[in-house]
Amino acid sequence: MALYAYKGVGPGGRNVNGVREAESPKALRQLMRKDGVVVTESALSRGGKATSSAAGLSREVRLGEVLSRVSVSDVAAFTRQMATLLRAGIPLAETLGALADQIEKVRFKVVVNQVKNAVNEGASLADSLAKHPRAFNDLYVSMVRAGEAAGNLDDVLGRLADFMEASQRLKSRVTGALIYPAIMVLVCAGIMTILMVYVVPEITRMFVQQGKTLKWNTALLIAVSGFMGKYLLFLVIGTIGAIAGFVAWTRSAGGRPVWHRLILQMPLIGPLLRMVAVARFARTLGTMLQSGVPMLRSLEISREVIGNVIIKKAIDDARVAVQEGESLALTLKKSKHFPASMIHMVAVGERAGELEQMLTRVADAYDAEVEAKVTRVTTALEPLMLVVMGAAVGFIVISILTPMMDLAKLGSPRGR
After folding, report:
1. Which of 111, 161, 191, 408 could pair with 79 in a Cys bridge, judged by C-beta atoms 3.0 to 4.6 Å apart?
2. Which residues pair with 7 in a beta bridge?
3. Exposure pattern of 245-256 as b/e (b: 16+ CB <10 Å)?
4. Class of residue 182 by CB neighbours under 10 A (exposed 0-12, middle 13-18, buried 19+)
5. Helix crossing, 255-264 with 269-290: angle to 10°?
6. Are 284 and 163 a contacting pair, CB within 8 Å?
7. What is the pLDDT of residues 189-231, one digit of tens each?
8. Would you list the domain boundaries of the chain?
9. pLDDT in tens, 100-157
10. Any residues with CB less than 8 A from the CB of 260 and at least 6 apart, and which?
11. 49-50 sheet: strands from edge to edge
């Protein structure tokens, strides 16, 4: 066994260091983890002293920290567990310590330990979380702050966990439904490229050598195949460049509004993306209002979960109108970007004093409708893509077989 000098974070969040025998840096981390210490740096040691400076310390943990991003799922699970422990009457600092001990990802573990230390020093949980915006966004911090002010932090954390899990579930469903069509497009493009660049030239070479006048489809196939074979590298570079330029334009200040407005006007994609945005807005606003966050602040934060700048502008206008005393339903109706059914339900919720619950129902209804529409669209796309692929392959086969049959007729005794 080798002797390693190490530095790390102890159970109480304090910095620790020492020397310990282990077979490898990985084994050292496992041994120290059993003692509640997360190793951040390690190096071979002689006589209890590190043989290298801090610059030469093992980078395995640092690389792990870079790769192990704090995901929404990690934060949602952490939030759910914190709500459960607080409901059981466990103090906040002890709850944070217990959760930090069971977190596997080093980066998230360090964040939670820092939050726990700040709480132990007298800071509020919201202020402690706000120091780590990459893990806890404004929505999260604002809801926690409202829960601390109202004295119902455990309930707020439970709603926040529900919100994050529902949002992640919708995202996973949409992403999962689109993976198959995307793979199909890539596979079809790859197959067609191989056919046109490598297979077709070998088969059609005999037609060119015969010097016979070819039909338009065969001539077109040979021309396209020759062009792709000659300029394939330029086509690939040009395609990548065009995609990169298009993406840059859609993210620019001038191109983003034009592109987002165009997306909303597309026949199938537009209504679907509008519904996704409405569902996310309604769920976010409803969750924040239920947690005690003021209406204007809730609208300000809710707009940040929307990716489309056109709908963001409509929410901004609604916030200004609400600040001036108008009802939320009326301001959303004026924007013409929100469905009539949602506006009606919001109006009923405002009159009955149950806006929060009504927004949650709107979100549930639209989440279900989004899932159904995505399923229908992907179900329709699969046979359509097969038809397109079959038509392309059929065109190639017919363009090749027709002149081959003509040559066979010319070579037969009857053809002579």
Report:
1. 161
2. 17, 41
3. eeeeeeeeeeee
4. exposed
5. 100
6. yes
7. 888 888 888 877 877 777 767 666 778 888 888 888 888 888 8
8. 2-67, 72-165, 171-416
9. 888 888 888 888 888 988 898 888 999 999 998 888 888 888 888 888 887 888 888 9
10. 308, 309, 310
11. 15-22, 2-9, 38-46, 49-50
The tally of CA atoms less than 13 A away on the side-chain side of residue 363 is 21
HSE, side-chain direction, 13 A CA sphere, residue 90: 14
Task: Give the Cα separation of 207 and 214 in Å (integer).
Answer: 8
| One-letter identity of residue 2 | A
Q: Which two tokens stand for residue 279?
A: 């569902």
Q: Which amino acid is at 271?
A: P
- Who wins on pLDDT, 41 or 295? 295
The superfamily (CATH) of domain 72-165 is Type II secretion system (T2SS), domain F (1.20.81.30)
Q: Which pTM was predicted?
A: 0.64
SS3 of residue 213 by DSSP = coil
How many whole angstroms from its chain centre is CA 240?
22
Structure tokens at 148: 């601390």
Residues 6+ apart with CB under 8 A from 398: 217
Q: Which CATH superfamily, name and number, covers 171-416? A: Type II secretion system (T2SS), domain F (1.20.81.30)
